[in-house]
DNA sequence: CAGTAAAGGTCTGGGGCCGGACCATTGACC
DNA sequence: GGTCAATGGTCCGGCCCCAGACCTTTACTG
């Protein structure tokens, strides 16, 4: 990189900042972005098996792409066997199946190791922050009920996939309580990044019981309106999960 | 929105989650994204007046766009009087001037009020989280020196704009210490969102002194390797800044 | 049973963006 | 002074994506 002009502050080691400041723009990837988001939403259980996506025109508007581009992404998901489209009134695009959780190849994990470790760090920041914010806000009865229901769903989920999805919905549900689109977006992206890796955690009784106890502590702190306790509980939860995952990453 | 199929969990109020889960893909906005990022980098002082941007080919690769698209964004910034290009060896694209900070129209602020309030909430989460992570890591002498230098730059900055830029560089500098691209990205976006609004804070002696004292506490806690104190100090700093800004937003 | 609304399906012309190749300028080096 | 490398500048064919218009299907309603 060329040296800076004289006016630039020499005491500030800003090259690293210049390095990281300009990042990929994500232009020209409408199809890819659509496909990824829809697959992630289905995978995380936001659109469970049997549910119907919003109508195409509405979805295109919400995602900020043309209907043609959206339709291509939906076509690809249909080809993959995840979606089914039915035309006519009362029709729509329905979730047929959940995406296969492909156990990632060790070399692939190796390639993505740094990125996944970064995602773990970021997850801890935003999920703990989300808990703090959620516990700071007055919650409606409806919101408390939603939270308790999501917690109960995790406890009674059978099998690795169902448990993973219920877990994701609980974490995402907490994020929605913050009322902050930025936080929701950050938690969503972090969940999406780590979903496959989180699914690799062995669903052993002892792990589940520990995890369930931590979830309960988090939910209780949020409902009690105790921001510090909510954050600390989530930090502990993220730390324990991260310890397991770091074992997988090597 | 169409009702869900029978299998969908009725106890989970997931409509809000479905609402927020799918967000704009940002397709087909290469030029816009480039322009915005470059203008922000200049505005935040990452590329100060007189400095040279990386060569076009390198910049295009880093931002993941074609050189043609990047050149269009640079051309627009040149037309705006911010950049100057010189061809030939030893040439390059130099920063001529800083973007005008246009004092935003009250109606505009009103339109963006919710978004800016959200950015304040998000800022608190990611900046406090960044401090926590930065204070948790072993820092090199170089990094400590960078931090102290950035702090000194804020203290000696003259005038609203110079002070704002030095302030941004300190916050961004802290983010770089985390070593986490996700955190750096989040802090960058949050700084970019709030930059204009933060510049609107009156640069009164009492405000500056208070802010400087808080900055010092933050830096001291990070250097001391005290994550909780670093986070709390940044939370306090963000809260005090937010209180001023909420006054502006009404 | 006809009309209507709500859904998906198809087609078209045009702009945005891409990757690559090549040209022109400038300064360092031998 | 010629060569070379490092920079910006220009051009081209092609793909992605867009917005809109219009068609077809399906189920509800009066």
Considering the protein shown, what is the CATH homologous superfamily of the largest domain in chain A? GntR ligand-binding domain-like
Which CATH-level-2 architecture of the largest domain in chain A? Answer: Up-down Bundle
Q: How many H/I helices of chain A?
A: 10
Strand/helix succession of chain A? HHHHEEHHHHHH
Broad CATH class of the largest domain in chain A = Mainly Alpha
What does the overall shape of chain A look like?
globular
In angstroms, what is the radius of gyration of chain A?
20 Å
The greatest interface between two protein chains, and residues involved on each side, is: A-B, 85 and 85 residues
Write the layout of secondary structure elements.
The structure is a homodimer of 250-residue chains.
Chain A: H1 15-21, H2 30-43, H3 56-63, H4 67-79, E1 83-86, E2 92-95, H5 106-136, H6 141-156, H7 160-177, H8 181-199, H9 205-224, H10 227-249
Antiparallel strand pairs in A: 1-2
Helix pairs in contact in A: 2-4, 3-4, 5-7, 5-8, 5-9, 5-10, 6-7, 6-9, 7-8, 9-10
The structure holds a DNA duplex (30 and 30 nucleotides).
């Amino acid at each position: 990189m060329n040296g800076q002009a004289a006016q630039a502050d020499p005491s500030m080691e800003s090259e690293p900042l210049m390095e990281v400041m300009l990042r990929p723009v994500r232009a020209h990837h409408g199809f890819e972005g659509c496909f990824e988001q829809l697959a992630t939403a289905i995978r995380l259980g936001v659109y469970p098996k049997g549910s119907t996506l919003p109508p195409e025109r509405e979805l295109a508007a919400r995602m900020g792409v043309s209907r043609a581009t959206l339709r291509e992404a939906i076509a690809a998901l249909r080809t993959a066997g995840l979606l089914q489209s039915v035309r006519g009134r009362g029709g729509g695009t329905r979730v047929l199946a959940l995406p296969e959780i492909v156990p990632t190849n060790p070399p692939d994990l190796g390639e993505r190791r740094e990125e996944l470790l970064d995602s773990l760090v970021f997850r801890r920041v935003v999920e703990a922050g989300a808990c703090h914010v959620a516990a700071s806000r007055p919650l409606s009865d409806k919101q408390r009920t939603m939270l308790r229901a999501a917690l109960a769903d995790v406890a009674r989920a059978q099998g690795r996939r169902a448990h993973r999805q219920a877990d994701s919905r609980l974490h995402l549900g907490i994020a929605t309580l913050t009322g902050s689109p930025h936080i929701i977006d950050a938690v969503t992206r972090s969940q999406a990044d780590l979903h496959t890796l989180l699914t690799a955690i062995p669903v052993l009784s002892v792990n589940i019981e520990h995890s369930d106890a931590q979830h309960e502590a988090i939910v209780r702190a949020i409902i009690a309106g105790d921001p510090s306790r909510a954050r600390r509980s989530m930090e502990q939860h993220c730390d324990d999960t991260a310890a397991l995952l770091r074992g997988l990453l090597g």
